[in-house]
Amino acid sequence: MDRWNRWLPAMAGMLLLTSVSSAAQNPVTVDLRPARDNPPSPAMGDNLRFSSTITNTGAVSIEGIVAWISLVEIDAGNEQPMDLEDWSAQKAVTGAVLSPGESLKTDWPMRLIKRGDYRVVVSMTDRGGRRVNTSPIVQFHVREKPVLQAGRVVWVAAVIPFLISGWMVFNKTRQRRQRTRFEGPVPHQTV
Amino acid sequence: MKTIWIIAGKESAQILKSQRGLLGLLSFSGMLSAFSLLLVSDTELSLLDNAQVVYMLEGTVLAAGALIAAVLGSDAYAGEKERGTLVPLLCAPIAPETLLAGKAMGLLAAWAIMFVVAAPYLWAVGANGQNLGAALFYMALFGTPVVLGFGCLAMALSARTGSVLASLLSTLTLLMLSASPLFIGPGLRGTAIGRALDIINPFAGALNTFDSVIIDSQPFYAQLARALIVSVWMTGCLIAARHSAAHPRYQ
User: Fold this and answer.
1) Cα(B102)–Cα(B96) distance, integer angstroms
2) CA neighbours within 13 Å on the CB side: how many for A76?
3) CATH class name, domain A26-142
4) Nearest CA-CA distance, residue B161 and chain A, Å
5) Do B50 and A45 touch (CB under 8 A)?
């Protein structure tokens, strides 16, 4: 018991030193949450919004902040990072300085283009730091929804060429009648 | 002014009243029908976002419009010469600028007809999605200068060379170079040369505008730089056409 009482403060001191050291090395927290008004069961074509909060929990200002969003598909056999070009208009934000205790909040809108299971994460780094800080992952499923109405497309694809063809026939007939009227009927030859 | 409308009417009649023009229009609508049916019949393609489909279709319409403008522009002066109708035309009391303006109005009429034919297709594939109205508006706003520019360039070459084949080949080569963003991948477009080409290319400017407006829902002020590029392109081609039409080289 005496030995335990001797070692306990040392162990507590080591734990405290480790956590202080960690905080000093990683004075940033990145949080990511889906917006409350996101549809509960999103489908293709829906819009989602995520909100991130980057907080400087250290004692020193952070300069040259860059934060970006990443989206990966995790469907079995189809695991891949997604190109956000068609999913979102905002892919990254920058911040000049983040003072101690200050937070940088950002909204990340996203339009759902393809069905599947996805994970989204916000990453952040700064000019002086040597690590990338990431937020917790948010996972969501996008339901499939055929977006082209076949009936409407087939109808237009058939009617337009039909109308143009009809106009061609009408035009040809009218030109032939005008030519006949101008040239007159062909005279019959008698033998 | 009345002379311009008479010439424009005659040029427009080639599209709507001649069998050759109507056959071209039928081919154009057939191409759009095939593309639309392909989108519906293929499972993966039918799941594409509406906005993406509208963007693809508008790029196709723009390319076809520029192609038709190149063909009509190449025929404007050299075609009249090869048919033997240029001399009577030049002997008529029509100023070169008036003749050029009438033929340019005819080009615009052809583009307007193509726009009207393409609009139902865009509605059919894009009515459920976003930014359909904006898509039609920007296709008119950015597509018209691009198409008119290629048409005027073809007319300038037509007046200069006196040969339909020579002017058509030259214009088509330039058109293919401008439309290269449709063929090369994003990786090549991201290189220094690719980016430089994108900046000065009116065709790429129009395509990037369609992407920005239809897919990313960007506002008008984000398109101002590209609007400047297509305007400069159209103005430059108009000036070239005016200069060539005033000093044509005929054998």
Assistant:
1) 10
2) 0
3) mainly beta
4) 34
5) yes
CA distance A152 to B49: 16
* Nearest Cα residue in chain A from B50: A147
Q: Does residue B224 fall inside a structural domain?
A: yes
Residues of chain A numbered 21-80 and touching chain B (CB < 8 Å): 44-45
Across residues B2-12, what is the average pLDDT? 79
Using DSSP's 3-state secondary structure scheme, residue B130 falls into coil
- The verdict on residue B187 lying in a domain is yes
pLDDT tens for A71-92 read 999 998 889 998 887 776 678 8
CB of A30 closer than 8 Å to CB of A51: no
Token look-up 């299971």 returns A117
Q: Are B29 and A114 in contact (CB < 8 Å)?
A: no
pTM over 0.95: no
pLDDT at A19 over 70: no
Residue B165 in domain: yes
Query: How big is the CA angle at B109 (ends B108 and B112), to the nearest 5 degrees?
Result: 85
The arrangement of strands across the sheet holding A28-34 comes to A28-34, A47-56, A103-111
Domain with B222 in it: 2-246
Chain B residues at the A interface, defined by Cβ less than 8 Å, are: 17, 19, 22-23, 25-26, 29-30, 32-34, 36-37, 39-40, 46-50, 52-53, 117, 120-121, 123-125, 127-129, 215-218
Query: What DSSP designation does A47 have?
Result: E
* From A109-123, B2-16, B56-70, the region with the lowest mean pLDDT: B2-16
Whether chain B has a CB inside 8 Å of the CB on A91: the answer is: no
Task: Return the residue of B nearest to A157 by Cα.
Answer: B33
Residues B112-145: tens digit of each pLDDT: 999 999 999 999 888 776 688 888 999 999 999 9
- Place B187 in a pLDDT band, splitting at 50, 70 and 90: low
Residue B163 phi/psi, 5-degree rounding, is -130, 125
Range list of β-strands (E), A16-155: 28-34, 47-56, 62-73, 80-81, 92-98, 103-111, 116-125, 133-134, 138-142
- Residue A179 in contact with partner chain B when CB distance is under 8 A: no
Rounded Cα distance, A49 and A133, in Å = 21
- Domain residue extents for chain A: 26-142, 148-179
Q: In chain B, how many domains are there?
A: 1
Report phi then psi at A101, rounded to 5: 85, -10
What pLDDT is recorded for position B7?
80
**Min Cα–Cα distance to chain B from A119, Å:** 20
